[in-house]
Design goal:
The complex is a heterodimer of chains A (about 350) and B (about 800). Chain A is built from eight helices and nine strands. Chain A has about 350 residues and is mainly alpha-helical. In chain A, helix 1 packs antiparallel against helix 8 and helix 4 packs antiparallel against helix 6. Chain B has about 800 residues and is of the alpha+beta class. In chain B, the strands form 14 sheets. In chain B, strands 19, 20, 21, 22 and 25 form a five-stranded antiparallel beta sheet that branches. Chain B has a four-stranded antiparallel beta sheet with strand order 3-4-5-6. Chain B has a three-stranded antiparallel beta sheet with strand order 7-18-26. Chain B is flat, with a radius of gyration of 44 Å. Classes of the chains: A mainly alpha (about 350), B alpha+beta (about 800).
């Protein structure tokens, strides 16, 4: 026996099918309009979760890029300062009087200029300190992790004792030296610039971060004194040499004492080595800047990569979405048309009594 | 040969016209109701009409012809099996629909896909997700610009916004919870209305049935209501018959809960909702009980032998239950467990001596009362439900009566033969009627009623007795000689009447829209207490309602607050990580420094304990020690439970806020590490900011016990804050997806079944057109028959035997 298909049962089935056609059309229309494969977690929980993960990575990447750029600028600034320092050193070593002095020519043609050179050298030392006390933004460039406080100051009884963060750079006090050691070798100011930032048991993995601290004391040839008791730091050396030269007689350029003379020549001899150490640091800074630059490229590549991945996860294939919508609309239109004919005729319309 | 009256055939034609007219009327009714919801198409039932019985001497040539047609009634065309299947599936649809509606509403709050705008950088995708990310981005900025207040303000603003969003989500969830409670209560009212209406229709149908009317339209109405009820709860519908006396029975409809509880030992899931003219009502509240209070005599049920009060049945004085029936209590002062009067108190049922002052309920003013109607009604915990007793439209409680087998009783128990009513110990009552029969029987040699046992010379007892004139007895085995005596036999007929009682429904007795809504309000998922898993619902840990998502959000907020607070306070250390005092000297304990990262050594722990430096639990209290040793404390709580204080206890999504101290100015600890000789960290040292930043990368372990002490001890999730947030949404999304798929399947099946029902029961224009034609033609043919008969009779009367 064939099942009865009554007016009401046809209507019910039709209504249900029409609702479904309408629902699918609406859904595909949403897909076309939003351009997104899923519009809620319920549409595709796994992909939605993955998408959020990727977006988090993108946000992190954005923070890392911004930090990397900031550090890059800071290093550029530092590089400029070091360039200045290097040129200052060249000014000293290229000075005719200084050269002549190095030849130890007694009463040479420039002997009378020694005092002037001395003044110029102490002034240069002052300038170098000012350069090393330069700022990037609100922070002092070469202050290590103490960026809010000026790193280099003049201290001591005669006001000619160069101090780094309050510690004389040419100190012989073991406690003070330990402080300088800490600044130079241990103190860090780490930054997450996309090197796999990781914290293990509350301790930051040093390899996963970038130490952006620039310790001024490291950039000036060294700290403390050598075996002769002479400063290792170029500014201290220049300042001391300048002070000794300032003590020379103005007419024949004689040193105030033999000890000072010996000291001057010791320092002048060591100056070359100290300058070389400063240059090494300058090159090291350049290398680090280069690293930051290449890291910026990597971060940017990551950004594009992530954006592409997100797009792959979220964005619809427009052609597919539109053809789906057209098909759904076609089905819906057909359903409407069918409805019109399903409900139009029955035997009632043909009865003739 | 049987004859037919001259005008008999006119009756035939007339009946045919009536039947056709009636047929047209039924067809017309069907056509009129084509759009009436739940209308079942009707059909005219008719039979061939035949008069007269068999003749006493019937000729073999006799031909009997029927006398036309008789309409015998109108019936409905309906398939009860399809009704059952439809209603079963309808409860599935109701369950999934209500669940999905709830989950969709939760998702409208929590699901952030596509929310927050979409920009090429993707920075604004999501809201909580974005603000969480933003907090860490701001920390990244601060790590680069440490010590600068505007960057600290940025972090604080990001944290403040995150708190506001969390609070807003929690508030929305709470609002949704309240709305769902309202909807739940409305649905209970709706269900109670449905049950009352079905009961009232049952009463009306029963009345009609008694008077011979099938009340088809009322049945349609009732079917509609049952269909609607089946959406709310799984039900079983059975049609039985009810004996109304005089050999007549009428139909009785019984609706019971549909055995939805997976626990087969539970039977409350088969409780009756509607029993003919009686129906139960769902109750969400119970009378407030007068809890036991020492010294309050109204709170004790029983009295002990010493006259003290107790609620312990074992301590109560037990006395035999007294017989209250006037007719028998003189001889049988007690009642046994079956309600029978007994003499011996040892045989009696023992009942505790009640405390006359006992008042089990409290009224709305908090005063004890013994009247349940005066008691204050309080909500059943956990949105539990109770089914009331079955009551009719006049509020009378249904009493089911079971007729026991008639039993023979002794004359003593017969009393005066009047019916008696006894309340049985189990709360039922026994109504007993008595009857006695008298018979003249052969006098048996049974030694009863003062008769002696007579024996023959061999010592064997005789079968019968002869009663002599002097009152003595003689034995005999010949029944013909035996005397006759009148023997009275007493019988009792018991009717056990059990009144319908309220039923407390088990947690899983219902299935359908109501239960889904209830689960949305009660289910805690992994936060369920072990007690509720054990005693209420074994699968409670896998069911997730609004409270689950609220607690997940609370847990996330708590974890964010706790992690940040813990990492933003403590004592300063030297470069080696050992705590220092205000003079920058390393604090010594057990001959060594105390390292912040590594914590206390075993020797140091022992030293603290030995010094009595312990917390309330007896564990070493390092903070106390450091404070005593002039350690330098820095930092504080970044998040609190209240914007006016720094109190961090009980932080959840509803109350999380940035602390009062932080809102007043910078509070983030840059670093705990001081360069040697210093008592403060370097001004831009950002090591601790990086640690705070690292919290965003750290996989945290989330325990349900953090919020619910008695919940499972295993962690429910391990991951970063953002992972946890995504996890909440993934769980919700999965639940939605599964529920939606099930709803789709169930709905499609229901539509199919409804269409099948409509195929059987609904009106079809083609059918009715055929009926119209058929009955119209029948009508015409009957008229033609009448014309023919008229013509024939005209010939017979007016044209026969006449000559012209």
């Amino acid at each position: 026996m064939i099942a009865r298909t009554t007016t009401l049962s046809s209507m019910k089935t039709y209504r249900y099918n029409l609702q479904r056609s309408g629902y699918y059309m609406n859904r595909s229309m949403n897909t076309v309009q939003t351009g997104r494969i899923f519009n809620s977690f319920a549409d595709d929980p796994a992909t939605a979760a993955l998408s959020f993960q990727k977006r988090r990575a993108l946000l992190r990447n954005s923070a890392q890029r911004s930090l990397n750029t900031s550090i890059q600028y800071k290093y550029q600034q530092a590089w400029k300062a070091m360039d200045q320092i290097e040129s200052n050193l060249d000014t000293v070593s290229g000075n005719a009087t200084f050269k002549e002095l190095l030849l130890k020519a007694e009463n040479g043609p420039t002997a009378s200029a020694r005092t002037a050179l001395g003044k110029s050298m102490t002034a240069l030392a002052e300038n170098m300190v000012q350069t090393m006390n330069g700022r990037y933004g609100e922070n002092f460039l070469f202050a290590g992790a103490d960026g809010l406080n000026v790193p280099f100051t003049w201290g001591g009884t005669d006001g000619r004792d160069l101090c780094y963060r309050g510690v004389p750079v040419s100190t012989t006090d073991p406690d003070e030296l330990a402080k300088l050691d800490y600044f130079s070798k241990e103190e860090v100011k780490n930054a997450d610039i996309g090197l796999g930032f990781d914290i293990n048991g509350g301790k930051i993995e040093s390899s996963s971060v970038f130490n952006q601290a620039l310790q001024g004391v490291d950039f000036l040839g060294g700290y403390g004194v050598d075996e002769d008791g002479d400063p290792k730091n170029v500014i201290a050396m220049i300042d001391r040499m300048g002070t000794i030269l300032k003590g020379c007689t103005s007419d024949d350029g004689k040193f105030a004492s033999d000890a000072e003379e010996a000291e001057f020549f010791r320092l002048a001899e060591k100056f070359e080595g100290a300058s070389a150490r400063v240059k090494d640091k300058y090159i090291e800074l350049d290398t680090k800047s280069g690293f930051l630059s290449s890291n910026a490229t990597i971060l940017e590549a990551n950004q594009y990569n992530l954006q592409e991945q997100i797009s792959g996860l979220e964005d619809v294939d427009e052609a597919l979405a539109i053809s789906d919508f057209i098909f759904a609309k076609y089905t819906y239109d057909t359903a409407l048309k069918v409805g019109n004919s399903v409900l139009s005729q029955s035997l009632m319309d043909y009865m003739k009594l | 040969m049987s004859k037919i009256g001259t005008f008999g055939s006119f009756t035939q034609a007339r009946l045919a016209i009536y039947a056709a007219q009636l047929g047209l009327s039924v067809t017309g009714n069907n056509i009129s109701n084509v759009n009436t919801l739940g209308y079942t198409r009707q059909r005219l039932d008719q039979e061939s009409f035949r008069t007269g019985g068999a003749d006493r001497y019937q000729s073999s040539f006799d031909v009997r012809v029927g006398n036309g047609v008789l309409p015998t009634g109108v019936s409905q065309l309906r398939d009860p099996y399809l009704d059952i299947r439809f209603r079963n599936d309808n409860s599935n649809v109701g369950a999934m629909d209500a669940k999905l509606t709830g989950l969709d509403r939760i998702a409208a709050i929590l699901d952030e896909v596509g929310k927050g705008g979409d920009v090429p950088e993707g920075e604004e995708f999501g809201i909580i997700a974005y603000h969480l990310g933003n907090l860490f981005k701001a920390l990244s900025g601060l790590s680069d610009n440490t010590g600068q207040q505007d960057y600290d303000v940025q972090v604080r603003s990001a944290a403040d916004t995150l708190c506001q969003v969390l609070r807003s989500y929690a508030s929305n969830l709470s609002e949704m919870y309240d709305d769902t409670v309202k909807a739940y209560n409305q649905n209970i009212t709706q269900i109670n209305n449905l049950l009352s209406n079905i009961r009232d229709l049952n009463t009306a149908i029963r009345k009609s049935d008694i008077h011979g009317d099938k009340a088809l339209e009322l049945r349609d109405q009732r079917n509609n209501l049952i269909d609607e009820l089946s959406k709310y709860m799984k039900i079983d519908v059975t049609y039985t018959t009810e004996d109304i006396g005089a050999g007549k029975t009428v139909e009785k409809l019984i609706i019971s809960l549909g055995n939805a509880n997976p626990d087969s030992s539970v039977h409350t899931d088969e409780s009756i909702l509607v029993d003919g003219r009686y129906c139960a009502q769902l109750m969400t509240a119970t009378p407030k009980l007068n809890e036991e209070k020492p010294g309050d005599k109204t709170t004790f049920q029983y009295m002990t032998e010493t006259g003290d009060l107790t609620n312990n049945l074992e301590q109560a004085q037990m006395l035999p239950k007294e017989n209250t029936d006037e007719a028998t209590k003189a001889d049988f002062p007690y009642i046994d467990a079956q309600g029978n009067p007994v003499k011996d108190p040892d045989d009696a049922y023992k009942v505790p001596v009640p405390n006359p002052d006992y008042k089990p309920y409290l009224d709305k003013n908090g005063n004890p009362t013994a009247d349940i109607d005066e008691a204050e009604m309080i909500d059943i915990p956990n949105f539990g439900l109770r089914l009331s007793e079955l009551r009719d439209e006049y509020d009378r409680v249904l009493e089911s009566v079971v007729k026991m087998e008639e039993r023979e009783i002794s004359k003593d128990l017969f009393g005066n033969g009047e019916p008696t009513t006894v309340l049985l110990p189990d709360g039922t009552s026994k109504y007993t009627t008595y009857r006695a029969t008298q018979q003249r029987l052969l006098m048996k040699n049974d030694g009863l009623n003062g008769k002696p046992i007579m024996k023959d010379p061999d010592g064997n007892p005789f079968k019968y007795l002869i009663k002599n004139a002097d009152g003595s007895y003689t034995g005999t085995n010949n029944w013909k000689e035996a005397s006759r005596e009148v023997v009275t036999t007493y019988y009792a007929q018991d009717y056990i009447t059990t009144p319908s009682t309220p039923v407390d429904l088990d947690d899983n007795d219902l299935y359908g829209a109501l239960q889904s809504q209830r689960e949305l309000l009660t289910e805690n998922g992994e936060f369920s207490t072990l007690d509720s898993i054990k005693n209420l619902d074994e699968s409670a840990a896998s069911k997730r309602g609004i409270p689950y998502f609220q607690k997940m959000l609370d847990l996330l907020a708590e974890k964010i607050a706790t992690s940040f607070n813990e990492n933003n306070q403590g004592y300063l250390t030297n470069k080696d990580g050992n705590y220092i005092d205000k003079d920058a000297k390393e604090i010594q304990l057990a001959g060594a420094g105390i390292n912040r990262e590594r914590g206390l050594t075993e020797a140091q722990k022992q030293a603290l304990i030995a010094d009595g430096c312990v917390d309330a639990d007896g564990n070493p209290d390092l903070d106390r020690f450091l404070e005593a040793k002039d350690g330098i404390f820095t930092g504080g709580n970044l998040f609190s439970n209240n914007g006016d204080t720094d109190d961090a206890t009980g932080i959840n999504a509803s109350n999380i806020t940035i602390s009062a101290s932080w809102s007043r100015g910078p509070l983030i600890v840059n670093s705990f590490l001081c360069p040697n000789g210093d008592t403060k960290p370097a001004s831009t040292d950002s090591s601790n900011i990086l640690v705070l930043q690292g919290l965003g990368e750290q996989k945290m372990v989330y325990y349900p016990q953090t919020l619910v002490g008695d919940a499972q001890s295993e962690p429910l999730f391990t991951g970063t804050f953002e992972d946890m947030w995504t996890n909440i949404n993934t769980i919700l999304g999965n639940d939605q997806m599964i529920t939606s798929t099930l709803l789709d399947n169930y709905y499609e099946k229901t539509v199919e079944l409804d269409s099948s029902r409509a195929s059987v029961s609904s009106v079809d224009f083609n059918d009715e057109a055929m009926n119209l034609m058929q009955y119209a033609k029948s009508y015409n043919a009957a008229c033609r028959l009448m014309t023919t008969l008229d013509s024939v009779l005209d010939k017979l009367i007016n044209g026969t035997g006449l000559t012209t």
